[in-house]
Amino acid sequence: MGFKGTKQEKKQNYDKKLCELIEQYTQVLVCAADNVGSTQLQGIRKGLRPDSVVLMGKNTMMKRSIRIHAEKTGNQAYLNLIPLLVGNVGLIFTKGDLKEVSEEVAKYKVGAPARVGLIAPIDVVVPPGNTGLDPSQTSFFQVLNIPTKINKGTVEIVAPVELIHKGDKVGSSEAALLSKLGIRPFSYGLVVLSVYDNGSVFSPEVLDLTEDDLCAKFASGVANVAALSLGISYPTLAAAPHMFANAYKNVVAVALATDYSFPLAEKVKEYLADPSKFAAAAPAADTPSAAAAPAAKEVEKAAPEPEEESDEDMGFVLFGDD
Question: Are 142 and 163 within 8 A, CB to CB?
């Protein structure tokens, strides 16, 4: 997006445009724009219309415009974007689904050759096979320690070779070889770095979470809270059911070991006195009932040793020392 006029007029127009977008949109994708050309960027703009607007610019100008808007309107939420404006970044303002827009942005990638001095974003592996180069070109392969052989008058690579490691600078020999082989190992496009949504800033990985993932993480959190609460004997909603169940087991154990009884313990004593009732209470013959007998045996094994049950299990002291 270009603005015509003097330098001061361009700044004013840019401020006006960014402030308008801030007022219209509540969702923003902060994207890295390294090695993205103008033609490629135009394709991205076209593909994201009409629900999204791509705005590029200098970080200082974007920060200035955001601060000006915050001062004028009193809306401090967009100030959370300022720490994210580092490096070569752009903003995508959108009213669409954040996940869908992020996936759409990822589609617009263009292959690029390995240029000298470039930091490799991925590992580059040269596959085995015939290169089509004449034997006079073997010096390139020898310099890079790539095993080759001459096959029908051409150079053939006999094994895959990891030519460039991710994060390394591309050297002149590597760039020349990949150019001769016609390999364009890298691809570039806008890369979503952060997501802004109504004042909240989070990683784009959050967009990949499903409802099942959220439920699983919530259940895991509740389990951790319950475990901690039980461990320190501190009652919480997550631990309360377990505490009540453990307390009931403690009281039933005391009732079984003594003459003391109460209504909920009577049925347990009745079943222990006559284990055949377990079979009577089992499901009908056409349903699985194999678990009833082992359950009865487990209760019988546990009955003679009620004194090993602790009155202080999980933080409940039912009786004093006296």
Answer: no
